[in-house]
């Protein structure tokens, strides 16, 4: 059995649930940032960050003990946790101020099938915080360009993938000039003078430690990476091929000094996540995703949203 398969950890979580081995965690109530009816999105209000928003204090009474489908329908609202920053073409504000993207489309499909409204809580400064919010019961589901990691699978249940990216490395052309013989990308990134940047508190911290255990890792904020690449503080960056391609398109001068190497055999699927107690909800979401037809390609997605990228 492949122990890195999300399905294994979903089943493992269900066995723990059946044995009564799960604890209920406290959390804070949601003050939603954006509300929408399924099918059309209209921004109501924007949640502002509090001093503790990055910590996501979950010490108050539970918003709901469990999140079965019936409870969501009775509430009339599906609460979706999402990263506060735009990550096109997955979740972003259009020029008209509306939330659009692949993640938004997935959330709309789920809400439409439930016949409930959507509320997006975009108060989370990193991807792990989105997972923690769902784990704590602050949100029903998380849809936020979320990758699978073993650590996350201990907190939430993963759906089947709704989109697949590939892992990639942005690397200095000076480093590439040192390639000899049949060196692999792992060999190149593991060279002594390579300083590999990864976004702090993202899945790529775990991915990098697994794929490049001998490489010097530098964790940074997403907004700082361009400055760090330009200054030489880092000379490589590990992320998905979509993200690194966007970085080069938005900063064409980088092409003179860096190149992107897409690792085709290393896929990075994206998932919806629910609380570990909500196997009935994730099973139902899987059915929705499985019957939604073939996923659009990256080229098709970029064409669809080209005016707002």
Task: State the main characteristics.
elongated, alpha/beta, 33% helix, disordered N terminus, 12 helices, two-stranded antiparallel sheet, 13 strands, 309 residues, eleven-stranded mixed β-sheet
Q: What proportion strand?
A: 15-25%
Distance between the termini: 40 Å
Number of strands: 13
Shape: elongated
How would a textbook summarize the main sheet? 11 strands, mixed
Tally of alpha and pi helices: 12
SS class: alpha/beta
Enumerate the spans where pLDDT stays under 50 for 5 or more consecutive residues: 1-5, 7-67
Over the alpha carbons, how many angstroms does the gyration radius reach?
20 Å
Order of helices and strands: HEEHEEEHEHEHEEHHEHEHEHEHH
- Summed over residues and divided by their number, the pLDDT gives a mean of 81
Query: Fraction of residues in helices?
Result: 25-40%
Task: Give a verbal description of the structure.
This protein is α/β, with parallel strands linked by helices. It is built from twelve helices and 13 strands. It has helices at 6-18, 69-75, 102-114, 127-136, 150-153, 173-176, 185-189, 203-211, 225-231, 241-250, 279-290, 298-304; strands at residues 34-37, 40-41, 77-83, 92-93, 99-100, 117-124, 141-146, 156-158, 163-172, 195-199, 216-220, 236-240, 258-275. Strands 1, 2, 3, 6, 7, 8, 9, 10, 11, 12 and 13 form an eleven-stranded mixed β-sheet that branches. A two-stranded antiparallel ribbon has the order 4-5. The radius of gyration is 20 Å and the shape is elongated. The protein starts with 5 loop residues before the first helix and ends in a 5-residue tail after the last helix. 39% of the residues are buried. The model is unreliable at 1-5 and 7-67 (pLDDT under 50).
